[in-house]
Model the fold of this input.
Amino acid sequence: MNYPNQIKKEYHKNINYANRGMDLEKMINEANEYYLEKDMALIYKKPTPIGIVKVSYENNQQKIKDAYFATQSTLDYNGLYKGKYVEFDAKNTESKTAFPISNVHKHQILHLRRVIRHGGIVFLIIRIKGLIYLLNGPDFIEFIDHTERKSIPYSFIEEKGYPLEYNYNKGLDYLKIVDLIGGFKNEEN
Amino acid sequence: MNYPNQIKKEYHKNINYANRGMDLEKMINEANEYYLEKDMALIYKKPTPIGIVKVSYENNQQKIKDAYFATQSTLDYNGLYKGKYVEFDAKNTESKTAFPISNVHKHQILHLRRVIRHGGIVFLIIRIKGLIYLLNGPDFIEFIDHTERKSIPYSFIEEKGYPLEYNYNKGLDYLKIVDLIGGFKNEEN
Done:
């Protein structure tokens, strides 16, 4: 598009402020870029959906003059890894004791169930107490199906989740865990 | 979101006008809704990416006051079918003799190659001469890799493509062709 780089930067800045999970997102995006560069996987963040109220034309181009951020009914990231469908979302919590289930919208939970049913790999990346865990979709669903609790205690995440660490080269390297939960053989060994 | 339905309708109207493939998109969206309802597949159109120039706060909500439509570097639709990753794009051409390859952006062609390499199912849905064809990604890539031509002649699309028809209940039912190109067994027979 015919916009200077400065505006593009502003855009990224705004988008980041619009999301609670700023740094977590950045770490995941770095991993996705690394995977793309190394031709390991094709995983992208979906664009944030918006609702457009007003569009005008300037210099023969459509410009959005009034719009609002809408909510995603699926998860934020999806793509392809070793022939398999992969989808996940990144969630932050400020709580030090539990992950509030309300952080995952009802339609996202429905979608999680569907992805499992259709044979995809689906999970959450949760930051809690400054640590980051990959919690496999089936474990998340099993928890909420067997409790009336409104949050997942940290002990459950610690027990069932897989810790992830940020790596300066790879970003938040989650694919090695996808190899485990997806039942892939580790081709390097 | 706290917006009346009228505004949401306006949004859809605007989005449709923003795309050349209005009716084709609508037919595909109907099919995707049908597949979702019948629990056959999970395939969604990605939100149109936008570049945000200005955001303001109104009633404690972020509102976009200046933005432009950006281009998707991947294809518009992706999802999950029988455990497999599926991605495609819908393309219209006014030409009656050939499909201009420039309708598929360079980064989209690169992405197509990557999806094939990683074992995904990828294709184009092309409307030409008022007819609609599903052209499998490998056939598209094979054509452009063996020619200097700037467009794909209609005869090639007619020979290699699979005709699709709109169905009042199912929309543009393309999954039956995905069964063929994806090597799935037809479970109904």
